[in-house]
Design brief:
Structural class of chain A: mainly alpha
Number of helices of chain A: 15
Low-confidence stretches of chain A: 432-439
Helix content of chain A: 55-70%
Strand order of the largest sheet of chain A: 3-4-5
Number of helices of chain C: 20
Largest sheet of chain C: 6 strands, mixed
Order of helices and strands of chain A: HHHEEHHHEEEHEEHHHHHHHH
Distance between the termini of chain A: 43 Å
Strand order of the largest sheet of chain C: 3-2-1-6-16-17
Chains: A mainly alpha, B alpha+beta, C alpha+beta
Shape of chain C: globular
Radius of gyration of chain C: 26 Å
Helix content of chain C: 25-40%
Strand content of chain A: 5-15%
Oligomer: heterotrimer
Radius of gyration of chain A: 22 Å
Mean pLDDT of chain A: 83
Mean pLDDT of chain C: 88
Distance between the termini of chain C: 96 Å
């Protein structure tokens, strides 16, 4: 399943270079080559280590990441280069470097995590560590675009929020797996109304509320929305109660409304969502410019390398990160942008399949949470850019430029591989085991 | 004029790119559907079972470690050979615990054993509802409830 | 249990992705043409910057506007400020206005008359071929009208009633659009200078000016009443002479007559009432028509909705004229009969544009048929050297035939006759500037018209109005209809009527020569 990449990524590189330079030369291919070698190595690494996890996850991720790399390679000359470890790298090369780091992390998690007890038995410790990290960022972090999300260790900056996402999923999965039966069956009756048993939810709600507060005061609305979505989804899967989701959604909409009254930056987002064209050069600029990009793309796209978004009058930011989906829409058209969404949906399906096949509740909940994080993140940013929901900044998994995002996404894949490996081994033991088990 | 030839070339390449992208997508979709069918079948085959115990640790190797035990709705656990699940361990009472499936959940109840029954490391003093993945400790034998 | 919930979850996720794909389809396919056409779209800006743009010629092939690409920047030059409003500007910094905006796709060549060429151009990245426009406007008449207005703020609109072709459409004060249509980095200062000038030169008074019409509205009242059978040319009202001295009370509102001296009030029928411009008479006539029918006639003449100059997608829009208070872009119903009585002689809440009033005159002149207004006569192949005239190769000709019958022939003839009397009759001569209109040299040609004096309140000079047409002989359709407004120009007979007469005379002279 990885072999088509050998064709796809170099072809994309060639089109881009030819369109930009106006020649028939295909241009440099180093980063494409390194990327493909990296993905093939990751695949054979898993096979060699006897990893029997889901065999489609990595090819899906590699295809999605490949499309992203083609986009970033195009943007490379327009966005400043970064220098790390004494090397001057353009953003495509930097991204490939982070792909390398991500793949190593994925292999380590997928192969190394034979037992999930380190995750499930220390869930409170994980949660506290995650929150501590976030509070630390909030206090000592660096502010970028009005939100304090970055922590710098020397020259390398990272976003703790990306990793907190995983920690949060582990914690919620652990808690829900333990208390699932109670949450599902126990009911408090207040007259004719049946309400969920609050005391069982409280510890989780408390931790969750702390996370939300920190995130909201750090002004990272996208991450807040993502966390909330993950939380509600996992609660729904654990209990099967739509009422939880409904109450949660009502609370969220009410909260968003109150926030838009209290905070200027939320109010601005709301106004820009309702009518971005009212202030096309101010509050609505980002949205309007990305909608123009989609419009220019049309059905089949302007062609790779021909996006105008990177030089849309100068003030546009985030073309390589949060708004990369608009570039995909412009260069590959509706056909290409839809294919990218379909690939992510396929990845999500694969992740949910891992959950269904999982042998125990904790693993199932973990797989659901991790998969949901990838799916919801894609939905939040693409729907935001497309003005379906208010725009909140968040990365497009595996496509956006950014080390933290890539690394955390690859850890998610590693965890999914580890979970599916365990269920595959258990199933094998069942079918090829020596005779019927004792009664 | 060469510019226009280049444009046509790029157009063809772009369409080829999208074509390959959709072939890849189609390939993934086929695999997805095939696995979905297989999963259905596998599930139908295993639907008969309502759960099983995987033995994680068993000093006397009876039941043998690493093997799953298929469960019926009512399972008695103990050192007496008449128990549904026979456990060979000195720290296990003759009639140690009952593991039952009631309605939608599994429950474990201690039968007045000497050394007690543990769920996820906590000793139980009344019937307790179990989730899949919970760990039971009976004597020195550790088992995990799985689907 | 979990497996079941996960399956349900996957369904919700598919639904969510479907919604996002729906959004994608909306912006990329369904709404894409609208997005692509917006002026602040970087693609439009980038294309515009270096794109050659078609030239614009007047009806006789005089060059009005043309572009040259110098240093990679498309710079536009306009030859005549009298056209600044009708043609507008094509600025790399401030976008486009007027005809430059309405016909942008043709001038830039962005849209080819053959859609297949559009696709080929798009795929091959070919620079679109600009195209030239020939207008119906005649530079000689346009300049003449602008000169007549002089330093006053106002507007002149002249139409050919038979075809709807606009012969002149000018608004003063005007401005020079050339400095703001050159290098975008040097366009800001000239624009500021224009904006700082008194009298809002950027506003096109002919299309966007909203004015109280005063007595010229009586033409519409007469047309509605005669066509609907509410009055005949001989109808009089019993209490009319007494009310003309004492006032006429409608639902508690007292309609007052203007100063009628030197004549004494009498039992006047339509012709005399129009000659002396009796408010009381037309208040009665309006009430005879009734609230619903009056609004219906106003709509037929083009009121209550924006007027369009041109057809299909490339229209120059004219602000809607209103008879009553505007409501969601439409006229609201009359509040009471008192409001109708005032509207019938052009006061109250009536607000009109000069183009609308010219169209009213043209409709009466054209036997009651409202012509279709147009300003662009044809589209031609781009002339390589615009200074030496337009190309011979005409790609498309616009000649909107037909029009819509608004009132019957007989009613139109009766109104025409009354309007001739209003200029040339024994009483009319006293009011319409003692025959000032006829004195402008249209010898032997009958002229029709109506003056208006839009009272704005005490101590404010009223706006001066005139609408009319010529020749107004019993045979043949008039060749020109005009509407003239001079802001704060005093009485209609004092300022607007002489201008209207002069413009019509000049046109007939030009046609004759």
């Amino acid at each position: 399943m990885l072999l088509p990449l050998l064709l796809l990524v170099p072809l994309g590189y060639a089109i881009t270079h030819m369109a930009v330079a106006g020649t028939t030369e295909v241009g440099p291919m180093q980063t494409a080559a390194v990327y493909i070698v990296l993905m093939l190595a990751a695949h054979f690494g898993l096979v060699a280590a006897g990893q029997r996890g889901d065999m489609l996850l990595l090819p899906l991720v590699a295809t999605i990441g490949g499309i992203g790399l083609i986009m970033l390679n195009r943007l490379a000359p327009d966005v400043a280069t970064t220098s790390a470890f004494g090397l001057n790298l353009d953003i495509a090369a930097t991204q490939v470097m982070w792909f390398g780091v991500g793949v190593i992390a994925m292999l380590a998690v997928a192969i190394g995590l034979r037992d999930d007890r380190i995750l499930r038995h220390y869930k409170y410790t994980w949660a506290l560590a995650g929150i501590g990290l976030l509070v630390f960022t909030f206090m000592f972090g660096t502010e970028v675009n009005g939100a304090r999300l970055w922590l710098y260790l020397g020259p390398v900056g990272f976003q703790p929020g990306e990793f907190l996402k995983i920690v949060l999923v582990v914690f919620i999965a652990g808690y829900l797996a333990e208390h699932r039966a109670l949450l599902r069956d126990a009911v408090w009756r207040v007259g004719p109304i049946r309400i969920p048993p609050l005391p069982y939810l409280l510890p989780m709600l408390a931790i969750f509320a702390i996370v939300m507060l920190v995130v909201i005061f750090g002004k990272d609305l996208g991450t807040a929305l993502l966390f909330f979505g993950i939380f509600l989804t996992m609660l729904f899967v654990a209990t099967g109660r739509r009422s939880y989701v409904l109450i949660g959604l009502i609370l969220f909409v009410a909260g968003a409304f109150v926030a838009s009254r209290l905070f200027d930056h939320v109010a601005r987002r709301m106004d820009a969502w309702i009518d971005p064209f009212a202030d096309p050069s101010g509050a609505g600029y980002q949205t309007v410019q990305s909608l123009y990009a989609f419009g220019r793309g049309g059905l089949f796209g302007e062609g790779l390398g021909r996006s105008l978004l990177p030089n849309a009058g100068g003030g546009f930011f985030g073309v390589e990160t949060d708004f990369v989906f608009a570039v995909v829409g412009e260069e590959l058209g509706l056909v290409g942008a839809f294919a990218l969404l379909a690939l992510v949906l396929a990845l999500v399906f694969r992740g949910l399949r891992v959950a269904i096949l999982a042998r125990d509740d904790f693993s199932a909940m973990l797989a659901v949470g991790l998969t949901t994080s990838v799916g919801l993140q894609t939905l939040i940013i693409s729907a935001g850019i497309l003005k379906v929901i208010p725009l909140t900044g968040i990365t497009f998994p595996f496509v956006s430029y950014g080390g933290s995002s890539l690394l955390s996404s690859f850890i998610v894949v590693g965890l999914l591989l580890a979970i599916s490996h365990r269920s595959a081994v258990a199933t094998a033991a069942e079918t090829v085991g020596p005779g019927e088990p004792d009664r | 004029m060469t510019g226009e030839v280049l444009r046509i070339l790029l157009l063809v390449m772009q369409l080829a790119f999208l074509g390959i992208l959709y072939l890849i997508l189609l390939n993934f979709a086929r695999s997805l559907l095939r696995d979905l069918r297989n999963a259905e079948e596998a599930q139908q085959a295993s639907r008969a079972g309502i759960g099983r115990l995987t033995v994680l640790e068993s000093p006397e190797d009876e039941p043998p470690a690493g093997r799953p035990i298929a469960l019926g709705p009512i399972n008695s656990i103990g050192r007496n050979v008449n128990n549904t699940i026979f456990v060979e361990d000195d720290f296990v009472s003759a009639n140690h615990a009952m593991l039952t499936f009631r309605g939608r959940s599994w429950f474990i109840e201690d039968q007045g054993s000497t050394n007690g029954t543990y769920v996820n490391g906590h000793r139980i003093d009344r019937p307790v509802a179990l989730s899949f993945g919970d760990e039971l400790t009976i004597g020195r034998v550790r088992m995990r409830l799985e689907r | 249990m979990i497996a079941t919930n996960v399956r349900r979850l996957s369904l919700y996720l598919v639904l969510s992705f479907a919604i996002v794909s729906g959004g994608l389809s909306w912006w990329q396919v369904i709404d894409a043409p609208a997005l692509d056409a917006r002026q602040d779209n970087p693609e439009v800006i980038a294309a515009r910057r270096s794109q050659p743009r078609g030239s614009i010629f007047d009806a006789r092939g005089q060059l009005l506007g043309s572009s040259r690409v110098v240093d990679g920047i498309s710079r536009r030059t306009y030859t005549d400020p009298a056209f600044a409003h009708a043609i507008g500007y094509a600025s790399l910094r401030f976008g486009t206005s007027g005809l430059e905006r309405a016909w942008d796709d043709i001038l830039t060549g962005r849209t080819d008359p053959n859609p297949l060429n559009d696709i080929v151009n798009d795929v091959l990245d070919r620079r679109p071929t600009p195209r030239d426009l020939t207008l119906t406007l005649d530079q000689r008449l346009q300049d003449f009208a602008a000169a007549q207005l002089g330093a006053d703020a106002g507007a002149v609109v002249a139409l050919d009633p038979r075809t709807g072709a606009i012969l002149a459409m000018t608004s003063t004060p005007t401005f020079d659009a050339t400095p703001i249509s050159g290098d975008p980095d040097e366009a800001a200062q000239p624009m500021e200078r224009i904006q700082d000038q008194p009298g809002n030169p950027l506003v096109d008074r002919s299309r966007q000016g909203h004015y109280t019409p005063g007595s010229i509205m009586k033409v519409l009242t007469a047309a509605a009443a005669l066509d609907g059978g509410a009055i005949t040319p001989r109808t009089t009202f019993r209490d009319q002479p007494r009310q003309e001295t004492e006032g006429f009370v409608v639902e508690g509102f007292r309609v007052r007559e203007h100063d009628l001296s030197p004549v004494t009030p009498a039992l006047w029928p339509l012709s005399e009432a129009l000659q002396v411009s009796s408010n009381i008479f037309f208040a009665h006539v309006g009430l005879e028509v009734g609230v619903d029918a009056y609004l219906e006639y106003a709509r037929r003449f083009g009121f209550c909705a924006p007027l369009e100059i041109g057809q299909t997608t490339r229209v120059l829009s004219v602000a809607a004229s209103f008879v009553t208070a505007p409501q969601d872009g439409d006229c609201s119903p009359f509040q009471d009969r008192a409001e109708l009585a005032q509207a019938a002689f052009g006061q109250g809440r009536v607000a009109v544009t000069p183009v609308q009033m010219a169209l009213l005159a043209a409709t009466v002149a054209n036997d009651g048929v409202r012509p279709v207004l147009y300003l662009v006569r044809d589209v031609r192949v781009h002339a390589a050297r615009p200074a030496s005239g337009p190309s011979e190769a005409v790609l498309e000709t616009y000649d909107p035939a037909g029009g819509e019958r608004v009132i019957g022939s007989q009613a139109a003839a009766d109104v025409r006759r009354a309007m001739v009397d209003a200029v040339q009759g024994p009483l009319g001569r006293l009011y319409a500037g003692a025959g000032a209109v006829t004195n402008y040299g249209i010898s032997g040609v009958a002229t029709a018209g109506k003056t208006g004096t839009a009272e704005l309140g005490p101590n404010v000079a009223p706006h001066s109005w005139f609408i009319g047409f010529a020749p107004a002989d019993a045979t043949g359709t008039p060749a020109i209809a005009v509407a003239v407004i001079v802001e704060s120009g005093g009485s209609g007979s004092g300022r607007a009527a002489p201008i209207g007469g002069a413009v019509m005379a000049e046109w007939l002279r030009l046609q004759g020569s």
